[in-house]
Amino acid sequence: MVEVMYFAWVRERIGEPREKVETTASTVSELVDELRAREPRYAAAFADLSALRVALDQELADFDAPLKGVREVAFFPPMTGG
Amino acid sequence: MKVRVQTDMLDPGAELSEFAQGRNDLGAVVTFTGIVRDDDGTLERMEIEHYPGMTEKAIAAIVDDACERWLLADCLVIHRHGPLRPGEQIMMVATASKHRVAAFEAAEFLMDYLKSRAPFWKKEFARDGATDWVAAKVDDEDALKRWTK
Prior knowledge:
The structure holds 2 protein chains of 2 kinds. By secondary structure, chain A is of the alpha+beta class. Chain A has 3 helices and 5 strands. In chain A, strands 2-1-5-3-4 form a 5-stranded mixed beta sheet. In chain A, about 25% of the residues are buried. Chain B is globular and about 50 Å long.
């Protein structure tokens, strides 16, 4: 079970800020594939991975990163701070 | 070193007078303030979303990195989130060092990294009701390259 969080337009497209996800995915990409298969709103949010970033337990990571031991996965667009 | 993430208004003057106060070993203080810009009078407000928890960690990591690269006597980062009106301060950075080069460079470094590596997202709300997430710029990502060791 992982806590999946969404920010900015990813959150708006999916319609929730966070949810608990039961998953057997071993990498972020596999988790994305599982989410995409759920409903069109997920497929829309994850249509273009180059427009997305991912953080694992609040640290930026790659989409091929392993999920073992991870509690919190966050998806969001490139950051626009400053 | 001080990092603050807040919704409250920010007073750069007051922050600056408190910053590095009572230190006689400083030769240079540099500050940067980011302001909500309305180019053509169409912006009603901006809303900044962030990732509580990760934001503070990411900024602290950027500040640590700056302190490893330059000899800084002190460093301040304040970033707002929530709704902001045109003309309001979004964030400020201050750096203090013995010499100006370190203070200037560290401030630029902090800004470059805060733009692309701190989890904030800006959404613009126009007066006519249109909304738009501000897209990250390729230039902002490129700006990081000059700092790679």
